[in-house]
Design a protein that fits this description.
Blueprint (H helix, E strand, L loop, with lengths): L19 H52 L13 H13 L6 E6 L6 E5 L17 E9 H4 L17 E9 L3
Antiparallel strand pairs: 1-2, 1-3, 3-4
Length: about 180
């Protein structure tokens, strides 16, 4: 039992200090724990935002190439032949505006009566046929780009490497041939 009248047995209760001195350590700890997660989230948003913007640029380039191929009078009918220069120039002009340099262009068409694939650069292995042939005469432009060309690798500095060197991004566009 504590005798409250005896000064030797009383316990001195100090008031709890108020203000910033009490929270200083907690704020530092919270910053140390939350800042890395916040940094990863911000870098991921920037990385995927840039990827989606570049996908839009690829889709636009495929559309421009499809429009150019649709009005080209005579498309080559040799399987594996080169894509017409007018189509290549139209696509490359759009891709260069986005800073995309490495690409493969495949132009599928059935203008000569049977399905034909033209490939640039020559000697490149085209992807398998994408889908069934649409009715009538058509052209399909396929642009294949390494993932490293369209997605910045911002998270690699934090040990999260999402851009694999052997992965590609493929965009296609189909139009009716009018030439």
């Amino acid at each position: 039992m504590i005798d409250t009248m005896n000064p030797r047995t009383t316990v001195a209760i100090r008031p709890i200090p108020k203000g910033p001195a009490r929270r200083e350590g907690a704020l530092t700890l919270e910053l140390v724990l939350v800042l890395p997660m916040l940094l990863v989230m911000i870098l991921a948003v920037v990385q995927f935002g840039q990827y989606l913007a570049n996908i839009q640029e690829l889709a636009l380039a495929a559309r421009v190439g499809g429009e150019e191929a649709a009005i080209t009078q005579s498309l080559p009918t040799t399987e594996g032949g080169p894509v017409p220069p007018s189509v290549i120039n139209a696509i490359d002009q759009q891709l260069l505006a986005a800073g995309i340099v490495h690409r493969m262009i495949v132009l599928e068409h059935n203008v000569g009566g049977q399905q034909t694939s033209l490939v640039t650069p020559s000697g490149a292995e085209p992807p398998p046929k994408l889908a069934a042939v649409p009715p009538g005469q058509y052209v399909r432009v396929v642009i294949i780009v390494p993932k490293s060309e369209v997605m910045p690798n911002l998270l690699k500095t934090l040990g999260l490497n999402l851009v694999m060197p052997d992965r590609t991004t493929l965009v296609s566009y189909v139009m009716k041939h009018e030439g």
